[in-house]
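Internal ticket - ligand job 587, 4-nitrophenyl beta-D-glucopyranoside:
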Amino acid sequence: MRVASFCVVLLAVVGVASASETDLAQQRRAAQDDTVRGRPARRPTFPATFMFGVGTSAWQIEGSGGDRPRSVWDEFVSTLGDREVLEAESGIEFHERYAQDAELMADAGVKDLKMSLSWPRLMRADGTAIEEGFDYYRKVFAALRMHGIEPHVTLFHWDTPTWCCKNVTTASSGVCDGAWADARIVKDFVAYADAVFSRLGDGVKYWTTISEPKTVAEMGYGAGVHAPGKMEVREQLRVGHNMLLAHARAVALFRKKYSHLSGKISINLNSAWAEPASGSSEDVRAANDAMDEELGWFADPIYTGDYPASMRARLGEFLPRFTGEESLLVKGSTDYFALNHYTSYYVKHVAEGRASGQLGMSGKPQPWDITLTSESSTAPIGKQAQSEWLHVVPWGLEKVLLRIKQRYGNPQIIITENGIDIAERPSIEESLDDSQRVKFLDAYLGATQEAMRKGANVIGYFYWSIFDNVEWVDGRAKRFGLVYVDYDGKYGDKMLRYPKKSLEHYSSYMRGDAVSVASLGAARESTVEGTIKSAISSFSTKRQGELHAVTGMALTMVSVFAAALMASRVKVTANEDEVHDEHTTLV
Ligand code: PNW
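stdout (structure tokens):
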């Protein structure tokens, strides 16, 4: 059975040695030189029209308020335990708190919010619309717009209504046959899309149909670790196929019946970066094949009308075929490229016959292994975040962006998700002091800027996520937010929101007044390690003190990070010797 990429990474994590520090000193010196001479390390080059947004999804924040009908995720967590059920039922109570949340976001300068709609709230099994559900989203949109926030709407972010399952459904059975594995879901999805476009379409400028079909197929139907918990190696290819068709038919409808709305539409495709573990031609080819699967499985059909040739060669008849009509329908079914990107890994060719623990989607051994270290170094590809699968590799984002540019005709790209989780700490002050996330943002935006300099047509970046939220099976334990959510009321009322330092920092981007964004994230082959290490360095306690002092001076025209640079005058990144506090070594 093929395990989804980040599960594989999780397995591979064991036994990784710590990074060596070599190239960092050089990088730091170069950056210091620039700073000492009194000019910022680099000028910002984000165009004035560049969108800096934030993301959320319905199931992760709303909770079950308003008698929300059940989705496969409610079923799935009910097989896991009481904790998971409680977390799913509560979310972060966005269903009740959306008005205050809109205000909080507006205060922080949010103008673009990626959000998904809950399909179960909106449609019944018989194909009729649930008008109370639509009224709810009208109110949410109105609250957002009143505060100048534009909703970027995703129709589906994983919460399939249980009525799509053939056999559900007694609560808590956890079983769901059919759904995305059954081609009949395409019709249901298009009916849902139609109801949404007609009722909520006015004024929505950016849509996506499905968020991460690859994750749903792999994790939900291949690895069985997401809803609906299936472990059917080959079913995942069928699921992916049905998702492409559902997406393409919804887009065809949108373009035909709703062209007067003049919105743009896409599908959120997640792709990690697969870097060859060595310069050998086998590893290079294996990594390219891995990228064909990672990005090309869904992007190739959309831009070329068929799956990548390497997937066809490897998977043969297990990979469904498009009819001529379907191929034409899928090809060209997006107006922009919506990319979700979180991490990178190395790929190593596996010689035929050599035993490998990692199976491909045909159920046969995969001709490559996913690893975290390269041939030439024992250093992991990037510092691990709170989640085992997430390694901080800004240059990986640059490479994905450039691959999209090169292979798919330089489309407009919106990075619709990118983010990092950081564990809760013993006090609220420490939990809010997320310097690692501040560095992460600068590093990944630096990599974005670098890709743009090389010609990638990136028009927006959305940080995932605005709030800590229910991180699927990991629940409240994983915190991706720019805003801390006090689930248990440790520091005041339950569910109160507390802005983290990173929100203030990202505000300067959203407000358009960041001045120096790219001092950390540039991708350069020769200094890969240095780049990663500089990205994962962190302010020392002393420097954090300076940072607070400077922000206290309310320097409105410079970013917090630039202000810290100015305050320290000579340092871009902290010296590693100063960075051994286990809580500040993340980014
Ligand atoms: C995203 N990978 O999924 C989801 O869209 C969010 O709902 C979720 O909260 C966020 O990740 C954080 O986990 C991912 O392959 C899918 O690296 C795939 C990957 C990463 C994230």
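Auto-summary: The longest helix spans residues 281-304. The chain has a mean pLDDT of 82.
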